[in-house]
Amino acid sequence: MRTVELLCDPPLDRAVRALWQRLADGGVDSLANNPHPGHRPHLTLAACARLPDGAEERLDELLADALPLTVRLTGLLSFAARSRRRVLSWSVVPTVGLMRLHQRVWEVLEPAEEPDPHYLPGRWSPHLGLTRRLTPEGVTLAHALLGRHPDLTGAFDAARSFDSEAQRARPLGSPEGAAQRRSFRENPAR
């Protein structure tokens, strides 16, 4: 699976990580417990089996022009996971700018193999993940720990594509991303 993700600027990243830690300290299985070294707060715009040929270069141009993007986080969302479990997330207000960017990303990915239907335009609920799969009791505990959850304004200032098979992330929308992709194509075994 390949994704297109927006990354939080340092203050927003710290705020989300603080929330992860508050949940973890209270006994909730939060994303603070994710051991992957590249794991960080992010907003997934798209997910598909494979990016179409030439998509990374087109996404570089699109995202370089779109970032930074100011956003507001508000309220909690709960998504169904397996069985009775739920995943808790921080809702991202779907501004015109964010929704336009999401649509344009999917225009680039239009011929993508096996797009994840949860991320398609018209079906996507923008959010930042907070927990892993929780029992109903875990969701109740998380809500109790967070109390009245305040809104927060921040920015997405970078983007990446994550390859779940290779467990590698590559920057998008920056000169560093283009250089890294060239290096990867020239030395794919690295």
Key terms:
5 helices; 7-stranded antiparallel β-sheet; alpha+beta; single chain; Cyclic Phosphodiesterase, Chain: A; 190 residues
Fraction of residues in helix: 25-40%
Coarse structural class = alpha+beta
**CA gyration radius, whole angstroms:** 17 Å
CATH classification, class level: Alpha Beta
User: How many structural domains in the coordinates?
Assistant: 1
Q: Architecture in CATH?
A: Alpha-Beta Complex
Outline the structure in words.
- With 190 residues, the chain is α+β, with helices and mostly antiparallel strands.
- It has one domain: Alpha-Beta Complex (Cyclic Phosphodiesterase, Chain: A), CATH 3.90.1140.10.
- The chain has helices spanning 10-25, 55-66, 96-109, 136-146, 175-186; strands spanning 2-8, 42-48, 69-80, 86-92, 127-129, 152-163, 168-172.
- Strands 1, 2, 3, 4, 5, 6 and 7 form a 7-stranded antiparallel β-sheet that branches.
- A hairpin with a 4-residue loop joins β6 and β7.
- α2 (55-66) packs antiparallel against α3 (96-109).
- The model is unreliable at 181-185 (pLDDT under 50).
Describe the secondary-structure layout.
Layout: E1 2-8, H1 10-25, E2 42-48, H2 55-66, E3 69-80, E4 86-92, H3 96-109, E5 127-129, H4 136-146, E6 152-163, E7 168-172, H5 175-186
Antiparallel strand pairs: 1-2, 1-6, 3-4, 3-6, 4-5, 6-7
Helix pairs in contact: 2-3
